[in-house]
Write a sequence for this structure.
């Protein structure tokens, strides 16, 4: 199956890269080099071709190359079933990042309509054991890959909630103002809830019959920290928000709504919660979910998404690594994978493009080893 | 640079603060004004002086005019019972350019925003409720921007005037005249489809 592919990528003053140009085709890309050479920075740049703050959730200022700190730019050509697109994203003088698609100014949300990018990074290793926020973000990125408009619903909901939280902090008691904000939150919140439910059902279908020892299936469910059932629709959410005003005023923040939901995962074959699984099993579950997401997208859109797998190969034994590579090749996905040594990707041979990243006096140097 | 002419530099600097103008376009505009001193610069200076001396907010609706009551509020023919609510004077002027609405306006002066400390008291909402009673308003048309703050404000106003039992409407959202479907975002297409009507 033909997938989406970044066929050219250029970075200017981005992190450790002063000026880098990479040409690629539809094959997976194996990136290797010593620690600190700038491999993950390449993946971060690719993650910024999708909406949001990228795989490190960094600010535009943090992404600028030091000591110049003059701003940065990423430009890419993306090939896909609907023809090529030129994407550019940049930030100048610490301002919020800008986006242009085919030389026209565009919103970040518009990126999600032409390119799906999924990633797995070491910072996600503790996803199942840390706070619910990371799991919600993981879930919402999954939903956005299926439904780009989910990003708008999340932004609307969060903006209205910030306004409501300010009223709560200021101890305002204006029922009409609360009701006006709750109406916005309820409408967007109901969209968020239904989008999450649809995506979980879609992932469950993509996992059917696909669970293996290397990529185990996970049963996913949404939960509420207080065990309450999710409001059925916008009307029910508006009522729940109105009913919770007194409690929210005491707490100084909104305690009801989809921003409180949690994503629970169970290791299907063993029936134990993901947080109770071994470190290796937790990582395998995450990898399995990312691959299921990719499989579902490939089936739904006819194009596999771009995968960014940071330091994933190093944590798998040789058999599991081969299984991962076979799965990526079967998906036809352009997976950008990092690792410290070339041997981690040896089994791919000419089926992958190889990039070596090295450090030269504080500047990353990217070398293509074969065409 | 104007080679050490502080008066001209000052003019350029002030012009560059205007919306839509940057330092370069301000320099070009000032140069043009100086070249056309009689036809542009002097009449402009006189017009600005006159406006500076007389411009004021209408005490009734918040429009900007040169009398305490603006031309629309002072015109008895505009007392149609319809009242159009807008965020800003620029929106009022945009509506007037269409020459379609024959009623009166009420300029809020912004939208509700708790984060920016703009509450109902900072907007002209209490005055709006008074006007609905005083001017025998039969319909309130909410012409607010389709942003989160605009929608929140519209919802708030609708709730405030609901007990008065008058008709409350809002501007339609959908395909702009001359617009192509291919260029519309999903939200606009959804709104347009929901607001479809029989031909």
């Amino acid at each position: 199956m033909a997938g989406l592919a970044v066929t050219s990528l250029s970075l200017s003053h981005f992190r450790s890269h002063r000026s880098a140009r990479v040409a690629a085709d539809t094959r997976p890309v194996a990136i290797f080099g010593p620690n600190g050479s700038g491999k993950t920075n390449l993946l971060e740049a690719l993650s910024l071709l999708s909406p949001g703050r990228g795989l490190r959730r960094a600010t535009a200022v943090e992404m600028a190359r030091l000591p110049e700190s003059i701003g940065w730019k990423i430009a890419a050509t993306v090939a896909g079933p609907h023809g090529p697109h030129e994407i550019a994203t940049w930030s100048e003088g610490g301002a919020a990042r800008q986006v242009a698609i085919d030389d026209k100014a565009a919103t970040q949300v518009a990126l999600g309509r032409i390119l799906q990018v999924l990633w797995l990074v070491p910072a996600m290793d503790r996803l199942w054991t840390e706070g619910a926020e990371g799991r919600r973000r993981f879930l919402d990125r999954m939903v956005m890959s299926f439904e780009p408009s989910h990003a708008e619903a999340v932004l609307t909901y969060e903006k209205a909630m910030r306004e409501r939280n300010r009223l709560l902090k200021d101890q305002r008691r204006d029922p009409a103002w609360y009701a006006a904000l709750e109406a916005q939150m309820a409408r967007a919140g109901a969209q968020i809830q239904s989008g999450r439910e649809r995506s979980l059902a879609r992932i469950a279908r993509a996992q059917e019959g696909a669970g293996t020892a290397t990529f185990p299936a996970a049963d996913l469910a949404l939960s509420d920290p207080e065990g309450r059932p999710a409001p059925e629709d916008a009307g029910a959410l508006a009522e729940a928000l109105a009913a919770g005003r007194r409690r929210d005023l005491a707490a100084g923040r909104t305690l009801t709504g989809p921003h409180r939901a949690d994503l629970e995962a169970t290791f299907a074959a063993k029936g134990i919660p993901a947080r109770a699984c071994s470190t290796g099993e937790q990582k395998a579950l995450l990898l399995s979910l990312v691959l299921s997401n990719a499989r579902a997208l490939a089936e739904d859109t006819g194009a596999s998404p771009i995968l960014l797998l940071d330091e994933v190969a190093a944590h798998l034994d040789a058999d599991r690594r081969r299984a991962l590579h076979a799965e990526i090749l079967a998906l036809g996905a352009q997976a950008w994978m990092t690792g410290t040594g070339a041997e981690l990707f040896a089994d791919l041979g000419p089926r992958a493009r190889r990039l070596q990243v090295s450090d030269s006096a504080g500047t990353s140097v990217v070398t293509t080893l074969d065409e | 640079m104007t080679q050490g002419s502080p008066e001209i530099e000052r003019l350029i600097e002030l012009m560059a603060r205007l919306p839509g103008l940057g330092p370069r376009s301000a320099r070009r505009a000032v140069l043009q004004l100086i070249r056309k001193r009689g036809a542009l610069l002097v009449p402009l200076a006189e017009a600005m002086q006159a406006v500076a001396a007389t411009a004021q907010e209408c005490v009734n609706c918040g429009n900007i005019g040169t009398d305490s009551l603006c031309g629309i509020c002072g015109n008895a023919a505009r007392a149609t019972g319809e009242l159009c609510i807008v965020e800003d004077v620029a929106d009022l002027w945009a509506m007037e350019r269409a020459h379609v609405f024959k009623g009166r306006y009420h300029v809020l002066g912004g939208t509700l925003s708790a984060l920016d400390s703009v509450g109902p008291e900072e907007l002209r909402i209490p005055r709006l409720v008074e006007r609905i009673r005083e001017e025998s308003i039969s319909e309130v048309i909410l012409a607010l921007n389709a942003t989160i703050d605009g929608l929140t404000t519209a919802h708030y106003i609708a709730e405030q005037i609901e007990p008065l039992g008058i008709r409350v409407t809002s501007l339609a959202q959908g395909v702009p005249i001359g617009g192509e479907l291919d260029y519309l975002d999903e939200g606009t297409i959804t709104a347009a489809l929901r607001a479809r009507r029989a031909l």
Observations:
- The mean pLDDT of chain A is 92.
